[in-house]
Structures are given as C-alpha cells and as structure tokens.
Amino acid sequence: MPLNSCLNIIIADKNSLLVRGLTDMFKQDERFDVRATATDGELFLKLLDRISIDVGIIGWKMPFANGRQVLTKLRERESPVRVVIYSGADVARQVRSLGGAGFYSKAKPPEGLIDVIFQVGQGNSIFPYEQHEAVTDPRFSSLTARELEILEILSQGYSNRKIAAKLEISNNTVKFHLKNLYEKVQVDNRIQAVAFYNKFYKEEV
Question: Per residue in 175-199, pLDDT tens?
C-alpha cells in the first residue's frame, strides 16, 4: 500500500447486521475505505470484477459461494486481492492452504480485526499463532475448484450417480474427476479420499 493512501476493502458475510457493524467500524478509521459490501460469496466475486480493492473480508459460511469456493476461484484467477476470513469456524489451516492472507476468529473482539486487515494490507499473512507450526498439506493446492467440490460431496456419502445428478454432469465426467482427485491426494479409493477430507479439511464449528 502506498504511503498516505488508504486500503480499499470489501466486506462480505451472510449476516447483514454483522456486515453493517463492521462497515461502521472500518469507516471510523481513516486508513480504510469500504468500497462495497455483500451478503454472499457470489456477489463478492462479482464486485471484484468492477471494483479495485486491496483486501477482502469475508465469512466462511456464505450462500452461493462459501469461503473455500471464493478462495479457490481467486486462486484460479490469479487474483492479486488479499482475503481475510472472519469466522467462528476453526478453519485457519484451510484458509492458509487455499491461499488466504489471514484469519480472524469471531470469538475475539471485533476491534482486533482492524489491525489484522491493516497488516494484511501491508503484505503480511496473519494467522493464529498455533497455526504457524501446523503442517499445511500441499496436496490441497493442486485441487481444482471442481475437484474440491466433488471431494466435499463425496464426504457426504453420495454415489457417483448422485454426484453426477447434483452437479449436472455425466457419470464418466465424475469418474474422470475422481481419478484425478485420487492421484493428487495420493489415495486409492473413495473411502481413503473421504478419510483425507475428514482429517484435513472438515469444518469445525
């Protein structure tokens, strides 16, 4: 961020009251300019197509596109926007592995989020201390958005046929994605893939 300029931010969360509160909080600090707000991940991504920002503050559980999907899409776009997840879910490790720039828990005083966003705007990555020692599994970074989506659905016990119906794709396409997914996360079958998901990727709320 250039000297004497403010950080342009967008705030997105499913809770509109929370969005309003955060907006008011950041507007009181001259270091920030709240360019827009959203109540779902899909709108957040659309806003990025027409508004230039430095940092996005988003929730993890949002309609249309959740935090994981937003981070995955931004990584695929090679977007320069830095994203901080503000959530009550214990997902800091996931956020880090998906290329997020920071994580701040809703269990902490909201005022602390201001410093996190400022630090991220300076190019730093801010995560809870204990996460610095955590081993981020490199296999996540190789998965595409579709493969991550299929892995999540797979963990819910869906058959190939039901996955195909849910995603409106063919059974052969599902098999193709599963084959690639298994190779990337180094497992032999769906049972092992689900165990991998549950160990490293399952949300804790």
Answer: 999 999 999 888 989 888 888 887 7
Residues 6+ apart with CB under 8 A from 133: none
- Which tokens go with 136? 């981020």
Going from the N-terminus, what domains does the chain have, and what CATH number goes with each? Answer: 7-132 (3.40.50.2300), 138-200 (1.10.10.10)
Cβ atoms within 10 Å of 203's Cβ, excluding its own: 15
Interval 78-120: pLDDT, tens: 889 999 999 988 888 888 888 899 999 998 888 889 999 999 9
Distance CA(179)–CA(193), nearest Å, equals 11
Confidence bin at 135 (pLDDT 50/70/90): very low
Chain centroid offset of residue 112 CA? 20
How far apart CA 79 and CA 73 sit, in angstroms, is: 9
Mean pLDDT, to the nearest integer, of 54-61? 96
How far is the C-alpha of 25 from the C-alpha of 21, rounded, in Å?
6
